[in-house]
Amino acid sequence: MHDTSSAGRPQDAAPEPSCHAGAHTAAMIARNVNGRGATVLLRIVATLAGVETLVQGLLAGMLLNGDIASIDPHGFNAYVFELLVILQVVAALWLWRRDRWLTWPLKATTGILLATFTQTALGLHSSLAAHATLGVALCAMQMALVLRAFALRPEHPAAPPS
Known about the structure:
There is one protein chain. The chain is mostly helical and 162 residues long. It is 63% helix and 4% strand. It is built from four helices and two strands. The chain has helices at 36-64, 71-98, 104-124, 128-151; strands at 31-33, 152-154. The protein has a two-stranded parallel sheet. It is elongated. Residues 1-23 have low confidence and may be disordered.
């Protein structure tokens, strides 16, 4: 996933890296962005949500292993994850408001939010195969978001004139 538009990109932003077959990686797409606070918030919330996906996987594994008592923490943790993903969308929206050319965080977090709501619905309807598959996909999407968020480089404010 890469930025959709460079036409509105500020002049001091990092140029698009050139690579073959569009194989962009997080290391190749370090971007200078306005909004240090929004970038830091996105990083923090995305990292916490990433940890939550790992905890969810652990609780799901315990449940599949026969530990019935782990179903309540798994359900509670699902709502904590949803809350973090909503905060993630808010951080991405804040970042987008600072840099209109930077659209991928808002698109990615919105997609993760929709997948999260789908995941919860599948879990509540006991669609175990689809629920487990989407859970693995959510973990991968969330970790990719974390890596991309840490590739963003917030600009330092200009030094005051002497």
